[in-house]
User: Which sequence fits this backbone?
C-alpha cells in the first residue's frame, strides 16, 4: 500500500482547485480587478443566465464539482445534516455541500470574497453565509488579505503570512495591512446553529486556534496540514481531537478525490505515520469513534 504523500501544486487545493480553471495568463491583474467588482456584478454572474454562461465557458468545473461530491460522499456515506464551511472563500465547496442536500453555514471573513459568496447563495435556502472568522475567542482580529490565487490565501495567522511572503514559487505574494474582522468560536457557532455533521476548516495556518475553541466532538472534521512549517501546530490539533474523542479515527487526502488509507487509523497509528511526513500540505480527515448522526 502506498502511504507516501505526492507533492502537489502549493496553490491548487480547496476552492483554488476550482478557481485556477478560470485564471488567465495574468492572475495577479485578474485578482486585483476582482477586489473592485461591485455586488451587482456577482448578482449577474450568479443569475441563471450567468450560471449557464459559466458552464459553457468552463465545462471542467462540472467535473471538478462531481469529483468533490464523490469525495465527500466517500467520507460521509449517506448521512446528511449540517456542515460548517470555515474559510469558505467564494463558495466552491459550499456549492458542493449544498448540492449534496446539506444545510450549510459558510463563514468567510475576507470582504472581497464574502461579496461573491453572499451573492452566489442569496437565493439558496440551505446555505447561510456569515462574514466572520473562527478563532479561539470572540471579538475582532486582524485578517491578512491577499488578492492572489483566487483570494484563497487570506489568513489570521501572522506566521502563515510571513511564510507565504518568503515563498518564491507561484509568484510573489503580498498581503494588505490587517483588516479588522469579527471572530466567533466553534462552540458559539454550535450553540447558534446546532451540532454539525461535518466541520470543514480551510484557514491557512490558523487551524489550531479554530479547533482550540471546540469543546465537543462532532462526527467529521476536515482540516489542512500545512507542512513542514505547521507540523507542531498540526500535531497539537490531532491531540485536541484525540482528547475530545479517544476513539476517533483518522485518514488523509492530498488530492481531494480519495482517502490515502483504505482503512482509517487510530490516533497512535496516524500520528506515527504523520511524524514521518515532510510535506507539502494535505487534508486530514477525523472521524468520531462514537458519535454518528442518523
Assistant:
Amino acid at each position: 500500500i502506498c502511504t507516501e504523500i505526492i507533492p502537489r501544486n502549493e496553490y491548487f487545493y480547496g476552492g483554488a482547485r476550482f478557481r485556477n480553471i478560470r485564471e488567465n495568463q495574468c492572475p495577479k491583474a485578474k485578482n486585483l480587478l476582482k477586489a473592485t467588482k461591485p455586488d451587482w456584478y456577482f448578482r449577474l454572474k450568479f443569475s441563471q443566465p450567468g450560471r449557464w454562461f459559466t458552464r459553457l465557458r468552463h465545462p471542467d468545473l462540472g467535473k471538478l464539482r462531481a469529483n468533490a461530491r464523490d469525495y465527500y460522499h466517500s467520507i460521509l456515506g449517506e448521512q446528511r445534516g449540517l456542515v460548517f464551511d470555515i474559510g469558505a472563500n467564494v463558495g466552491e465547496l459550499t456549492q458542493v455541500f449544498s448540492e449534496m442536500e446539506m444545510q450549510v453555514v459558510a463563514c468567510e471573513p475576507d470582504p472581497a470574497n464574502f461579496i461573491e459568496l453572499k451573492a452566489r447563495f442569496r437565493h439558496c435556502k440551505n446555505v447561510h453565509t456569515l462574514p466572520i472568522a473562527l478563532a479561539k475567542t470572540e471579538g475582532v482580529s486582524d485578517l491578512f488579505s491577499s488578492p492572489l490565487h483566487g483570494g484563497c490565501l487570506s489568513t489570521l495567522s501572522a506566521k502563515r503570512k510571513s511564510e507565504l511572503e518568503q515563498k518564491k514559487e507561484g509568484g510573489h505574494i503580498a498581503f494588505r495591512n490587517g483588516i479588522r474582522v469579527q471572530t466567533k468560536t466553534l462552540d458559539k457557532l454550535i450553540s447558534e446553529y446546532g451540532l454539525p455533521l461535518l466541520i470543514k476548516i480551510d484557514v491557512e495556518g490558523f487551524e489550531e486556534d479554530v479547533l482550540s475553541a471546540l469543546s465537543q466532538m462532532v462526527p467529521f472534521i476536515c482540516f489542512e496540514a500545512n507542512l513542514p512549517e505547521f507540523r507542531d501546530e498540526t500535531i497539537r490539533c490531532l491531540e485536541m481531537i484525540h482528547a475530545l474523542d479517544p476513539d476517533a479515527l483518522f485518514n488523509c487526502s492530498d488530492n481531494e478525490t480519495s482517502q490515502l488509507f483504505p482503512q482509517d487509523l487510530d490516533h497512535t497509528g496516524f500520528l506515527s505515520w504523520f511524524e514521518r511526513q515532510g510535506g507539502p500540505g494535505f487534508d486530514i480527515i477525523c472521524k468520531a469513534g462514537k458519535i454518528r448522526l442518523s
